[in-house]
Amino acid sequence: MGRLSPYSSPESELEIKIQSRQTDPHPVGGPHPFYPRPPPPRPPPYQPFTKWFPWLVPTITVINIVLFVILMYINNCPENSTKCIGTSTLGRFAFQSMKENPLLGPSAATLRKIGALEVNEVVEHHEAWRLASCMWLHAGVVHVFANMLSLLFVGIRLEQEFGFVRIGLLYVIAGIGGSLLSSLFVRTAISVGASGALFGLLGAMLSELLVNWTIYENKLQALLTLLLIIIINLSVGILPHVDNFAHLGGFVTGFLLGFVLFIRPQYEWVCKRKIPSGYMAPSSKSKYKTYQYITLLLALILLILGFIVGLVLLLEGVNGNDHCSWCHYLSCFPTPFWNCEARCSTSQEGNQVKMTCLENHKSKIYILGNENSTAQFQKLCIDLCT
């Protein structure tokens, strides 16, 4: 009879073998029935819309700065004026006096010569190119710095989202739209600056949010924030010597263009085209929703009609103030702190008139011609005060 030795245990004579999970007993016939197929790899972070590298907005910024430097070179204050700022340091790039240009820039005559918007030149001499050239000129260092900082702040994000083609079209067309409305109401002063194009970007941001309403989160918060920014910026236009008609024209043009250029396809439609293989995407019947097609068509019609009517009225010499008695308050609203109308005192001796602006106390002597009207004196007074 066999017995267990007291000096040995059953465990010492029992051999236990464990099959490793790494060996596959069925290498050819497929995976083992106890080990299911692994899930597909996780896709990279999904971005339904392409991100663009922003190069156009910085390029526009550099162009505006270079053009301002060229403008100051042409202005050559030490040679053409008796009072300049920074002559010893800046040489021919010196600024006009603070009374003549508080924004630290060139004279009004230089701006008019290079391409500032002036209605008489557009209507009488058919220089319609001024509607576009004025948006690339600035009245001073303060002016160009504020505009270019705003352009970088707003424009880079938009170019990342929508690309350089659509942003370029928006910038130029909105700038021309602002110049067009300005020329219908600002009849006796010159106008320069990229503010119309900048307000076009703000208008397009608003319409982009509305036309793509269904694909955004926190949409109400974004809408209220954007409206507050727009209202604050437009409110600045009621100050004297600020062309708020260019702001309004650019904003309306950009708002309409946003429905045309910034329309996005539905999220489900994009997912269906870009989802990785092995994943299910919700079905989408149409690339765009019905309301997106409707707003695109209406905005395009209004935009074309607005430009046609505006150009016809401008070339016919129509003054918008004659048909809207209150519209001038949109550009400057009088308060106890400032006056919207330029006021000058005059003293005449022979065919010479000495005119003094009551706001900046700048004086200048003019030679009278054969025909002089109140409108001509008012224009001279505005030039003297601005």
UniProtKB/TrEMBL annotation:
> Which family does the entry's similarity section mention?
Belongs to the peptidase S54 family.
How is it placed in the membrane, per its record?
Answer: Multi-pass membrane protein
Q: Where in the cell is it found?
A: Membrane
Recorded hits in Pfam families, A to Z, give: Rhomboid
Name used for this protein in its record: RHOMBOID-like protein
Locations of Low complexity compositional bias?
A: 1-11
The Peptidase S54 rhomboid domain, residue ranges: 126-262
Relate the protein's function as given in its record: Serine protease involved in intramembrane proteolysis.
- Residue ranges of the region described as Disordered: 1-40
- Could you state one GO biological process linked to this protein? proteolysis
Keyword annotations from UniProtKB, A to Z = Hydrolase, Membrane, Protease, Serine protease, Transmembrane, Transmembrane helix
Instruction: Give the catalysed reaction(s), semicolon-separated.
Output: Cleaves type-1 transmembrane domains using a catalytic dyad composed of serine and histidine that are contributed by different transmembrane domains
- Provide the primary localization: membrane
Q: Among its keywords, does the record have Membrane?
A: yes
Q: Which domain of life is it from?
A: Eukaryota
EC number, UniProt record: 3.4.21.105
Q: Name one GO molecular function term.
A: serine-type endopeptidase activity
